[in-house]
Amino acid sequence: MDIYSYFTDGAATMINKNGKYLRQEGGWAFIKCFNGEKDSSQSGGCKLTTNNEMELYAIYASMKDFLDSSCDGDKIEIYTDSGYCIGIFTQWAKNWQRKGWRKSDGKPIENLKLIKAIWKLMGEIENKNCELLFVKVKGHSNNVLNNEADELAVNAKSEAKRTGKTVGYNGEKDSLLGTK
After folding, report:
1. Are strands 3-17 and 75-80 parallel, antiparallel or unpaired?
2. Contact partners, residue 95, CB within 8 Å, separation at least 6
3. What integer pLDDT is reported at residue 63 of this predicted model?
4. Distance between CA atoms of 50 and 25, rounded to whole angstroms?
5. What is the pLDDT of residue 167?
6. CATH number of the CATH domain containing 89
7. Is residue 179 part of a domain?
């Protein structure tokens, strides 16, 4: 069994204009370790997004990379500083799916298209008899790889602002990004 560890992060800018928050550019990133050794990284971004969308997309891209690289029975660890993301996939999504992808109060779910795409990838990971583990790390602390993922995401955000381009997994444009 091989172990793939992904350190993920997202970054986005929002501005307050006349009491309303307006979405600006954002970036996502992951750093992949293979069996404990740093292996590779990816990052990208888009205009008009949120931090949560970027955090989610980093997880999505990590799972895509894992599915492209792994064998049956391997393990994927996703390290994130987003309690929101971990809560979605370890506590809430199963009930949301049962309720027709609605919250318990009946309200719509933010970032649903991306959440459903990740949920589908989680099913594919399970079908490969792979183990999936989410690990919460403290953001902007002494976790070197989380800090590096943060730096990559911030740089990708700057690049999205400079170019106006949408860059997803493997450098491709992705309709899951920038849907806000």
Report:
1. parallel
2. 104
3. 98
4. 8
5. 95
6. 3.30.420.10
7. no
Q: Which residues contact 151 (CB under 8 A, 6 or more apart)?
A: none
Tokens representing 124 are: 């594919």
DSSP 101: S
Q: Which domain holds residue 16?
A: 3-171
Q: Which residue has the tokens 């849907």?
A: 179
Query: CA dihedral in degrees (75, 79, 80, 84; nearest 10)?
Result: 40
Asked if 111 and 52 touch (Cβ cutoff 8 Å), the reply is yes
Closest Cα to residue 168, out of 30, 61, 49?
A: 61
| Residue 52 main-chain phi, psi, to 5 deg | -60, -40
Instruction: Give a yes or no: residue 178 inside a domain.
Output: no
The mean pLDDT values, 10 residues at a time, for the chain of 180 residues are: 97 85 91 97 95 96 98 97 94 92 88 96 97 89 89 96 95 84
Greatest extent of the chain over all pairs of C-alpha atoms, in Å: 54
Could you give the number of structural domains in the chain? 1
Which amino acid is present at 129? N
Residue 96 lies inside a defined structural domain of this protein: yes
CA distances from 6 to 54, 104, 124, 138 (A): 15, 31, 17, 15
Helices (H), strands (E): how many in the chain?
A: 5, 5
